[in-house]
Write a structure and sequence with these properties.
The chain has about 375 residues and is α+β, with helices and mostly antiparallel strands. The chain has a single domain, classed as 6 Propeller (Neuraminidase). Helices cover about 15% and strands about 40% of the residues. The chain contains five helices and 26 strands. It has helices spanning about 1-25, 180-185, 280-285, 290-295, 295-305; strands spanning about 55-60, 70, 80, 85-90, 100-105, 115, 120-125, 130-135, 135-140, 145, 150, 155-160, 165-170, 190-195, 200-210, 210-215, 225-230, 235-240, 245-250, 255-265, 270-275, 310-315, 320-330, 335-345, 345-350, 355-360. The strands form seven sheets. Strands 1-26-25-24 form a four-stranded antiparallel β-sheet, with no helix packed on it. Strands 2-3-4-5 form a four-stranded antiparallel β-sheet, with no helix packed on it. A four-stranded antiparallel β-sheet has the order 6-7-8-9, with no helix packed on it. The radius of gyration is 22 Å and the shape is globular. The N and C termini lie far apart (about 75 Å).
Length: about 375
């Protein structure tokens, strides 16, 4: 009797679990693919642990909600910040004074920023697309390609030769509010685009990218670098020469998840690494059924705290070699850094968990 009872109980439990699993898959918002990442690089050499970001100073403290990206005005007097309240805010670099400069329409959330060929501010807003912004005025340059509206216009940069604008549509499936679902799904839903200001047309340069994020054109305009956040790597797309149109690996197996990227006057690149890496979490993410569990509201809350609040930035050469690595290992000074922008021997940092811009003197490092 006991054996039969145990059998019946086991059968009921198994059937209930199977039914729960089918319901979970049916209701899941994602079609998960195993995420296979290399083992994180060892914390040695360039990647040796440090606390360099503890030395930063807060600029405009309390006045800049979640500054995703930054750009310096052509005359070098002002810093513009893309904030989560919809405003692009202007910061006077000498005085630190902040003012609301231009509001993105509707419930817009400006993300990537860049300067146009003539010094105008350009921005990406996930659903509005590619925007040209002057004080108090926002003009849409592009909001679709091949008749397909953007879901997640993210980051951009501009060719200094002809003003062409290169930008990413991070996901053709998920919008800004569901970015974690795209990364969790692990499928190449993103693409890289080009806007030609002379014709007003937008073309697709590359598809099949894993949450393409930051973009930066090289100093000689021969290639661009695009960050693939969910693959912890950056690719190089050649814009000139015999390899024009070829997309190849620029740097792989980064010590964090890359977000925005900015070129320096020297021709190197600063990459903001929005979070650290966890070998345990990355191992778990190789199992699609676990991803279904994380795609629930409860699972998403867990993911929000699973990745550490630490901050990381990395400078790489124009050949993709790591040069300088700086971090705040416990998020004491700043966390979840999305961008690092160098200007006059200072590094300016924006992030998703800050209400200020971090300013770090590179002479002190």
């Amino acid at each position: 009797m006991d054996a039969r009872y145990a059998y019946v109980v086991g059968l009921v439990v198994a059937l209930a679990a199977a039914a729960r699993w089918r319901a979970l898959r049916r209701d899941s918002p994602i079609d998960p693919h195993p995420t296979q990442l290399p083992i994180p690089p060892p914390p040695t050499g360039v990647y040796a642990p440090n606390a360099h970001l503890h030395k930063l100073h807060r600029l405009a403290d309390g006045a800049l909600p979640n500054p995703e990206d930054l750009v310096v005005s052509r005359d070098g007097r002002f810093l513009y910040a893309a904030c989560s309240d919809g405003w692009i805010k202007q910061i006077h670099l000498s005085s630190g004074h902040v003012r609301n400069w231009t509001l993105v329409p509707g419930s817009g959330r400006p993300l990537g920023l860049a300067l146009g060929l003539h010094g105008e501010v350009l921005a990406c807003e996930p659903s509005l697309g590619l925007l040209n912004i002057t004080e108090g005025k926002v003009t849409t340059l592009s909001d679709d390609v091949c008749g397909m509206k953007f879901k997640f216009a993210d980051a951009l940069d501009v060719s200094r030769e002809d003003g062409s604008i290169y930008f990413t549509d991070a996901s053709t499936k998920f919008g800004y509010g569901a970015s974690n679902l795209d990364v969790l799904e692990g499928r190449p839903n993103g693409r890289l685009l080009k806007y030609d200001p002379s014709t007003g047309t937008t073309t697709v340069l590359a598809t099949g990218l894993h949450f393409p994020n930051g973009v930066a054109v090289s100093k000689d305009n021969s290639f661009l670098v695009v960050c693939e956040t969910s693959k912890v790597r950056c690719g190089r797309l050649w814009l000139k020469g015999s390899q024009k149109g070829k997309l190849e690996t620029f740097i792989d197996n980064l010590p964090g998840y890359p977000d925005n990227i900015h070129r320096t006057e020297r021709g190197t690149f600063w990459i903001g690494l929005v979070s650290g890496r966890s070998l345990l979490m990355e191992t778990v993410m190789s199992f699609p059924f676990v991803k279904h569990l994380f795609a629930t509201p409860q699972g998403m809350k867990f993911l929000d705290v699973a990745y550490s609040r630490m901050a990381k930035v990395l400078e790489v050469s124009d050949q993709g070699e790591p040069l300088r690595y700086m971090e705040d290992p416990n998020g004491k000074a700043i966390g979840f850094v999305t961008c690092a922008l160098e200007h006059k021997n200072h590094l300016y940092l924006g992030g998703l968990a800050s209400d200020f811009v971090g300013r770090l003197s590179l002479e002190q490092i």
